Every structure is written in structure tokens, then in C-alpha cells.
Amino acid sequence: MRDAWKRAGDAVARAVRSMQEWTPRRPRPAGALLGLGAALVLVGCGLLGIVLGNDWAPARLLLIAAAVAVVLGLPLILVPTEKQLLVILLCLTVLLISVPAGFRDAVLSLRGERTPVTVTEVTRSRKPVTGGDEYTCGLRLPDGRRTSVTGTKVCTAYTRAGDRIHVYADPHDLVAPKGTAPVITFPGLGTVVGAAALLLVVATSRTMGHRRRAPG
Length: 216
Known about the structure:
alpha+beta; four-stranded antiparallel beta sheet; 58% helix
């Protein structure tokens, strides 16, 4: 088993070195395509993760693995300078966070409705990063659909099964409901994602362009 992991690690290391030594005929367009591809993968992973929800845990794990591979792999391939690395990582982080965090709000801002629901169960868990208690409420919507909401003002230590609360829900069930009013719109989300993607394309293009002029 150790030998298999060692062979896999050596293969990855060889692949990374090969990509680092690769200099295309037109480095700037090639760098731009790398940046654009990375942006599309992160946006796609974010959207699919939201749409799939918690019912497709294995698929979500694959999406997370793909996003992490892009965030870690792109700098390894490009070998940017310190300033270029900061710009690239900033753009990747914005794309990684903004799409999953903003898409649900944007959908609910567009067509969400404040809906009365019935709490079916309350589950307490520990927050993985900050610690402290976090509560997840199972919900039954008026049409019989079941869903859940986590860590909002409507699901607290004082919430009990059978309580009637209000959440913002998508009538077409594309995204999960939210306990508080949505604040992000599609124009705002599109502006942030577009700006980050454009800056990433410029940064990767310039980084790849410098590679050709480097000595040796």
C-alpha cells in the first residue's frame, strides 16, 4: 500500500514538473486559457454544489476535491512571483467562496417567498471551525416538501418540533430555504464573479508570458 502511494506521489510530482517546464508557443493566450478554465471549474463546482444540496454527498465531495485541486494546482503549474501569487490566490478564493455563498441569495432575491413552515426536528451540533453550538431545523413546507435550515435566527436553542416559523423559500425548489432575508442579487453576484474571473485571466496570462522571457 505504501509503495502504491509512493508511486502515485512520484507520478504527480513528475506531472507538476512537466507542466512547470512547459512553454507554449503563445504563452499569454495559453495562460489566459488556464485562468479561464480555472474560473469556469470553480464557478461550475459552486453552482453544482448548491443545486445538488445535501442529498448528493459523494458528488459534493468530488466537487470539493476538484475545486481544491484547481486552487492548489494552478499556482504550482504557473510558478508565479510573490505578487502574482497573491493576486491569483485572491481571485481563486473569491470565486471559490462567492458562488456558493451568493447563488442561493440571488435566487431567493429573484423569486423567493416568505413561507410559513413547520419544524419537524431540531438537531444540535458543534461548529467545525469556531466551536460553539449550531442548530439545524428539519422543516415541512406547506406543500409537503421537507428540507432543513441551519444556523439562523429562526432555528435556535429555543426552537422545538411543532413550532411554526417563517423562512424564505424558492417555490421551484432549486435552492435551499433561508431563515433571513436574502441580500445578494444576480447583478451583484455577476459583477463580483466577472471581475474576479477577468483579473484571474489577466494574472495567469501575464505570469505565463513572463515564463518565456525568463533566462534559461
